[in-house]
Structure formats: C-alpha cells, structure tokens
Specification:
The chain is α/β, with parallel strands linked by helices. The protein is 39% helix and 17% strand. It has two domains: 166 residues, Aspartate Aminotransferase, domain 1 (Alpha-Beta Complex); 252 residues, Type I PLP-dependent aspartate aminotransferase-like (Major domain) (Aspartate Aminotransferase, domain 2, 3-Layer(aba) Sandwich). The chain contains 13 helices and 15 strands. Strand 14 and strand 15 form a beta hairpin. It binds pyridoxal-5'-phosphate. The site of pyridoxal-5'-phosphate (PLP) has 15 residues, from helix 5.
Length: 435
C-alpha cells in the first residue's frame, strides 16, 4: 500500500471532514515551486499552499530567520510586553501597503482574524454598526468574517444567527454581470448601491464601512472593471464610509504590484493581510490609517499576536520581495500566462459538441483562472469537469486549486522561472486535450 493511501485512511478516522480537500495529495516537503508527496513523487506547485508561498517553499532567507529566532525566543506575549520585532514588521507594512500616510498595525494569526479586527475597528471608530459587503466574497470562517462572506451558502448553513448589520450586494463580475453588461456592471452596481440599498434598505447614517476583496479569490479570481474600485473609494469618501480592502489572497506581489489596491489605484482606510505575509508561518495583520486605530487599551488583543518566529519570517519575506522586486516576475509571467490561456480557450472551444467549454479566462499577475461551462450560451457551470481537470492535472504532476463553482485557479509561487511555468501550462493543455 502506498504511504499516501495509508495517510488518507488514518486521516478519515480522526480529522474533521469539513476540510476542503479536492485532490488526494499527501504533502511531505516543498522547495521553491516544487512539492513532493510522502511516496516521493514530485509536483509543480501551482497552488502555493493557497497563495501563501509567494517567495517559494522553504525560501532560504525565511528558513534561516526562523531557525535563528527559534533559538532565541519563541513567544513574546506582545499584547502584554513590548518587542522591537513587531515594530520592525509594522514599519515594513506601513512602507509597502497602499498609501504613503502614517498607519497603525494590529497583528493576528490568520486572514479571518485580520478581518474580524477590521470589522471591530470600523464599528468602533465610526460608532455605527452596518457594513456593506459583496456577494461572491470570501473573508474567512469565524463569525464576523463568515457573515461578511458571500461565496457559498454552505459556509453559513446551521451556524446562525450570524452577525447582524451586514448587507450583501452583487460584485461586478464581468463574465456574469447581475446588472448591465461586462462594461457597465461596475457603474450599475454603484447606482444600485446608491439608489436601492441606501435609498430603500440601509440607512446611510448607520453604515460604518464597505468591505471588499479587490479581486475575488475563492470565487475564482473575479476581476472588476478597471475603474470600479476607484469609484467605490470615491463613493465611500462621499458618504463618509470607511473602505476596508481584504488583500489576504492578493497581497505581497501576487497581483504584479505590491498589492492589488495598487493595480487599481486605491488607498483603502483599512487593509487586511495574512497568507503570504510570513511565507507559511501563521500570521496576519490589520493595517489602518493612523487616526483610525485609536481604540483604548484592552479593546482588542490576542495572546499570539506578533509571534516572534512569525515576525522573523515576515521580516525576511518582505525584505526578500523588496530586494528581488518579486512582483515584476508575477507581472511578466502573469501577462504571458493570460495570453497563453486566451489562446488555449480559443483552440479548445473551436471543437464543437464538447461536454464542456472554457467559458472565461482571466488574470492579474499570478492570479490566473479558467472558468468551465457546459454551454457558452447558458454559461451553466461545468462543476464535474473542473473537478476532473484538477484531478487529472494532479495525476500528471501539477497541483492546482479549485474556486467558485467551476473554476480552476493557477497560483504558482511568484519566483517560478518561465520554463517551469510553461511546463505547468502544457500539463494543463494536455489534460484538456485528452478530455
Ligand atoms: N480573506 C481572503 C480573501 C481569503 O482568500 C481567505 C482565505 O482563503 C481569508 C480571508 C481567510 O484566511 P484564513 O484562512 O487565514 O483565515
């Protein structure tokens, strides 16, 4: 019996079945953009451990920083004692996050905690309780973040009552616009928000903030029209709402810039971070304009906040990204990858009477996605086909991720060389051509 099979069997006995595994991958080790299973088989990693390993698995700078720190101090209780390490990371975050204004930072242990912090901070600062969020968004699994999310009703089933005061509106999804068409859906969303939501449903003077992902991640890399976020920011300023942007998945060079907010030219009032911030060490952060985070001692805290090993990893990661301008490779390969996927779509869809088609391809930096549909006219999601593609890629040595109802995400480490990036794209092409 293969070692992988044994692990799958043991896992089934004791691990929560709520984990969202879609391929039988039993990971053993990783290096750069390669991962190995417990049976010694190697794979190209186009998942980056769910967009975490932007600078590659076991990046030597990070490994050294973690080892050195582990010998010195493992826990600092930073909410009760002082430590220069959290300041070192906070100063770096102030420097690289969108907006050249002064900021304040609260450290968390995950993306969902960063978003809980943002939700609490917005309510605290504005002394108002309502938040507007988007359908299709994903912000995490704890109560506030779960309520803010709108990507899958299953995430909320039987968990209610949820957090009151959160209203969801459609996100401008150019391939499936709820309002208007591919080009106008951004403006039409804002008109709906102004006229219908604020006019008829939600009293404007009770709203603390609007929260959004700049590009929806778990929903399948949904990229809004280019000017939407700038207009949303203007809308927030006009109505005196805070703008919270969740950069948990899109941050740290992934989008081809430091942050996706930079791609769209916005400067959010609050930014939430996690995933790649510390290259796999559990860490997140909520970063706000300085004047917003002025809550009193005890209003928010956490035992592990700013853990020293996570701080050492974050410092090494941010310095590595800066020194090597890692976002540039993401931008260059992202453009190349998107062109490749556009050609693949055209070639694949040329043959008629297929059981499924590539409905849409999209990308920004190394956030690339293919959405599969049963028919290009009805756009009915081809969920089974996308699951099959994921599994066939895996069998051929390529690890990818599922998203939305029928989307495959390609999220390799940003440091991958073109040659290996192309190898992955050719495995995907091969899989599609054989289906
Ligand atoms: N926000 C976004 C945009 C995410 O993609 C995720 C996780 O996928 C989260 C928040 C939640 O992060 P975590 O799983 O670290 O709690």
């Amino acid at each position: 019996m293969a070692k992988s099979d044994k692990v799958l069997k043991r896992d089934k006995q004791i691990i929560s079945p709520s984990y969202t595994r879609s391929i039988p991958f039993v990971i053993d080790r990783g290096m750069g953009w390669h991962v190995w299973d417990v049976d010694g088989k190697s794979y190209l990693d186009f998942s980056s451990g769910i967009a975490v390993m932007n600078i590659g698995h076991c990046n030597p700078d990070v490994v050294k920083a973690v080892k050195d720190q582990a010998e010195k101090l493992i826990h600092s209780a930073s909410t009760d004692f002082y430590s220069d390490m959290i300041i070192d990371v906070a100063e770096r975050l102030q420097d690289v996050t969108p907006g050249s204004f002064k900021k304040k930072v609260f450290f968390t242990n995950s993306g969902t905690e960063s978003n809980e912090c943002a939700l609490k901070l917005a309510r605290w600062k504005k002394k108002k309780h309502r938040i507007i969020s988007f359908i299709g968004s994903f912000h995490g699994r704890t109560f506030g973040s779960m309520t803010l999310s709108g990507s899958n009703a299953l995430h909320k089933e039987h968990f209610g009552p949820l957090v009151p005061g959160i209203t969801h509106i459609p996100f401008p999804y150019p391939y499936r616009p709820v309002f208007g068409n591919e080009k106008t859906c951004g403006d039409d969303t804002l008109a709906y928000l102004e006229e219908d939501i604020l006019g008829k449903v939600v009293p404007e003077n009770e709203v603390a903030a609007i929260m959004t992902e700049p590009i929806q991640g778990e929903n399948g890399y949904i990229i809004p029209p280019a000017d939407f976020l700038k207009k949303l920011q203007k809308f927030c300023r006009k109505h005196k709402f805070l703008l919270i942007v969740d950069e948990v998945q899109t941050g740290f060079g992934r989008s081809g810039k430091w942050f996706a907010s930079d791609v769209f030219g916005i400067e959010p009032d609050i930014v939430t971070l996690a995933k790649s911030i510390a290259s796999g060490m559990p860490m997140g952060a909520c970063v706000s304009r300085k004047e917003i985070m002025d809550w009193p001692k005890g209003a928010h805290a956490s035992t592990f906040s700013g853990n020293p090993i996570a701080c050492a990893a974050a410092k090494a990661s941010i310095d590595y990204i800066k020194r090597n301008k890692v976002w540039k490779n993401a931008e260059r390969l992202g453009k190349h990858g998107l062109d490749f996927l556009k050609d693949l779509k055209e070639d694949f869809n040329r043959k008629h009477n297929r059981k499924f088609y590539i409905g849409d391809v999209r990308g920004q930096g190394l956030l690339l996605a293919l959405e599969f549909v049963k028919s290009r006219e009805t756009k009915e999601p081809a969920t089974k086909a996308s699951e099959k593609i994921l599994n066939s890629c895996f069998k051929k040595g390529l690890v990818t991720l599922h998203a939305g109802e029928s989307t495959v995400r390609l999220v390799p480490p940003l440091v991958i060389p073109k040659e290996d990036f192309d190898k992955g794209l050719h495995i995907l092409t091969d899989v599609l051509n054989k289906m």
